[in-house]
Automatic annotation (TrEMBL):
Name listed for the protein in its UniProt record: Leucine rich repeats and transmembrane domains 2
Pfam families registered for this protein in UniProt: LRR_1, LRR_8
PANTHER family: SLIT AND NTRK-LIKE PROTEIN 4-RELATED (PTHR45773), SLIT AND NTRK-LIKE PROTEIN 5 (PTHR45773:SF5)
Membrane topology: Single-pass membrane protein; Single-pass type I membrane protein
């Protein structure tokens, strides 16, 4: 019995390392399965990112079981044409969502309502022509929004009301002719705005937005070129360089049409929703002191930048004139003192010259008497 049990014990001792190695492999596999358990088969996932780009997807895969703590979801370069309203449900940890380079043409209202921590949203290069004003409700932490290369013809009033933390916005490459200033006034932290490659019509409908752009640039923001396509005499020019005096006729049109050109109903200019505006019915605001700040700021006669430039130039000219006047006054004083000194010297010499003439006359008289 001893001979038969010894080999068995030996075999068990030799088998311990193998079993430990097998347990290690199983634990690693269990960890990997735990990480990938919620990852859709069309995507590649890690602890922070789910990459579903370039998979020719025609619908969004099931995302409800993504790895917990996923911060980035990439769905770019697919064939998505529509999205369900529940497509991004239960993804409150998501911070970056990329839907660029798809075929999206219509997005449901409040599609992103549960993405409360989203900070970067890209809808670049889709087929969007209309945006629901409730689309971005709840995205209070959004910092970057890319809507470029779509077919947008307008930005609805109220679309950006809750995006007060937005710092970067692109509307380049759309079909925008004009924009309402009131749509963008909630963007108090905006620093970068892209508006190029749009068929801008530089008429009264764009006047108020031009004023807002100048205010954005004045407080340190950046706006790319806004080239006019109409009217013909402004074609190819950047509206930021068009003198504000060219829009003076808009005021005349408003007076003739009762405030219909380039203004809101009732003739009162649009303001941010938190600001009280005068109503067309009831009391009418007459004095400038009673107007809301947004109204006074919107209808400044000249742009802020040009006003500052005028003040600087006027200050320089006045300084030069003052220096010239001081120099002229100093020269006049010096010249007057020199002339006074010269006159005093001349008066001192006159008596001496008189004595010499008297002596000469006496000598002449003596000579004539002797003769």
């Amino acid at each position: 019995m001893q001979l038969s049990t010894a080999p068995t014990v030996g075999r068990r001792r030799r088998g311990n390392p193998d079993s430990q190695g097998l347990l290690g492999v199983l634990s690693v596999c269990a960890t990997l399965l735990q990480l990938c358990a919620g990852c859709p088969s069309e995507c590649v996932c890690n602890s922070l990112e789910a990459n579903c780009s370039g998979r020719s997807l025609v619908s969004v895969p099931a995302l409800t079981s993504l790895p917990e703590g996923t911060h980035t979801l990439l769905l770019a370069n697919n064939r998505l044409s529509s999205l369900l309203i529940s497509a991004f449900a239960n993804l409150s940890t998501l911070e970056t969502l990329d839907l660029s380079n798809n075929y999206l043409d219509n997005l449901p209202s409040r599609l992103f309502r549960e993405l409360s921590n989203l900070s970067d949203l890209s809808l670049r290069n889709n087929s969007l022509t209309v945006l629901d004003r409730e689309l971005f409700r709840g995205l209070t932490h959004l910092r970057r929004l890319d809507l470029s290369l779509n077919g947008l013809a307008a930005v609805p009033l109220g679309l950006l009301d809750e995006l007060q933390g937005l710092t970067w916005l692109s509307l380049a490459g759309n079909r925008l002719h004009a924009l309402e200033r009131a749509t963008f006034e909630p963007l108090t932290n905006l620093q970068h705005l892209e508006l190029g490659m749009n068929p801008w019509e530089c008429d009264c409908n764009l006047r108020d937005f031009k004023h807002w752009m100048e205010w954005l640039i004045y407080r340190g923001g950046n706006v790319d070129a806004v080239e006019c396509t109409l009217p013909k005499d402004l074609r190819g020019r950047d509206i930021r360089g068009v003198p504000v005096e060219m829009f003076n006729y808009c005021l005349q049109l408003e007076d003739e049409n009762g405030g219909g050109a380039g203004s809101t109903k009732g003739g009162s200019p649009p303001c941010f929703r938190g600001t009280a505006t005068p109503s067309s019915e009831g009391a009418v605001v007459r004095t400038e002191a009673e107007l809301p700040d947004c109204v006074k700021q919107r209808y400044r006669p000249v742009s802020v930048r040009r006003a500052i430039g005028t003040v600087v130039i006027a200050g320089v000219v006045c300084g030069i004139v003052c220096i010239m006047m001081v120099a002229a006054a100093a020269y006049g004083c010096i010249y007057a003192s020199l002339m006074a000194k010269y006159q005093r010297e001349l008066k001192k010499r006159q008596p001496l010259m008189g004595d010499a003439e008297a002596e000469a006359d006496a000598e002449e008289k003596q000579i004539s008497s002797v003769a």
